[in-house]
Design goal:
This protein has 215 residues and is mainly α. The protein has a single domain, classed as Chloroperoxidase-like (Chloroperoxidase). α2 packs across α3 and α4 crosses α5. The structure holds protoporphyrin IX containing FE and 2-acetamido-2-deoxy-beta-D-glucopyranose (7 copies). The site of one 2-acetamido-2-deoxy-beta-D-glucopyranose (NAG) has 7 residues, from α7.
Length: 215
């Protein structure tokens, strides 16, 4: 359908008991979405629960496995890193909206989201992404271009956001986020990713009225 991800984004799609590239619906008013464009997309496609709630290790492993062909050992590491977002002690799940809390996992200088200091820190922000795209100078994005965009966002935030926060932990997660699209649907060896696919993924081709739900 019109809003479905290109089939090439669904690398190695297994016989999907849940979710498909052909089904897509944005989150409704009772559904949770967060700052991660990929987790939101997987929920919109039903690879993760459409309501964005109760994401257990099993649900994340199945969703990232079916949707992206991610290896279970990698998704377990990612899941365990995400559990800190759930304020309950010894939590065994998280909800997508828990990821929105600033300076837990969500951080400043995102590629497509505003700093919390300036406004909403978790919905797609066209103004922010337009500045990021300035550094996408070819049809195939190299790691240098992706890093240039990220470094620009950091300089911009450091210059204009008096509350700018960027810790070593933020840096580690940011490196993962910058390379994640190449891992998911680019060339994992060279780190090169197709610009059209990356921009589609971030939601720039979605109708403005829907863009806050898309990713
Ligand atoms: C359990 C799995 C995952 C968790 C808990 C997670 C969590 C997050 C969080 C909290 C952010 C917000 C960071 C910020 O403030 O910008 C984020 C951003 C991001 N995530 Fe994920 N993520 C997961 C998996 C993935 C996967 C598989 C991809 C593959 C493409 C991905 C791609 C991204 C990208 C590209 C961003 C950066 C968005 C931006 O800078 O605007 N994530 N993720
Ligand atoms: C996947 O499908 C099973 C059986 O149809 C269902 O019980 C489960 O809730 C679904 N999971 C997700 C993540 O949609
Ligand atoms: C969350 O999922 C687990 C495992 O599927 C289930 O046992 C639990 O009842 C669910 N919790 C809620 C609040 O739906
Ligand atoms: C959380 O786990 C720790 C270590 O296993 C345990 O000591 C503690 O009682 C648990 N807390 C809750 C609220 O279950
Ligand atoms: C987008 O981000 C810019 C820069 O942080 C901010 O000024 C603007 O209010 C944001 N737009 C929306 C719709 O939140
Ligand atoms: C401001 O900075 C402090 C300290 O780093 C941080 O705890 C807080 O979440 C930040 N608030 C915003 C809106 O950026
Ligand atoms: C991926 O990048 C590697 C290293 O540059 C290259 O050898 C390989 O041909 C590329 N694969 C594809 C499918 O383009
Ligand atoms: C990027 O992907 C799009 C959509 O699949 C495709 O049409 C285009 O040819 C690709 N660009 C390059 C440079 O491979």
């Amino acid at each position: 359908m019109k809003f479905a991800l290109p089939a090439s984004l669904a690398v190695g799609l297994a016989a999907a008991q849940n979710g498909s590239v052909d089904t897509w619906a944005p989150g409704g008013p009772d559904d949770y979405r967060g700052p991660c464009p990929m987790l939101n997309t997987l929920a919109n496609h039903g690879f993760l629960p459409h309501d964005g709630k109760n994401l257990t290790q099993e649900v994340i492993t199945t969703g990232l496995g079916n949707g992206l062909n991610f290896d279970a050992s990698l998704t377990v590491v990612m899941f365990n890193a995400a559990l800190i977002a759930n304020p309950e002690p010894n939590a065994t799940y998280f909800d997508l909206q828990m990821l929105n809390v600033h300076n837990v996992l969500e951080h400043d200088a995102s590629l497509s989201r505003s700093d919390a200091y300036f406004g909403n820190n978790h919905v797609f922000n066209q103004t922010v992404f337009d500045t990021t795209k300035t550094y996408f100078t070819d049809e195939l994005l190299t790691p240098d271009m992706l890093v240039n965009a990220k470094v620009f966002r950091q300089v911009q935030s450091r210059a204009y956001n008096p509350n700018y926060t960027f810790t070593s932990v933020t840096q580690e997660f940011s490196l993962g986020e910058v390379i994640a699209p190449a891992v998911a649907f680019g060339n994992i060896t060279s780190g090169v990713v197709n610009r059209t696919l990356l921009e589609y993924f971030f939601g720039v081709q979605s109708p403005p009225a829907l863009s806050c739900h898309v990713i």
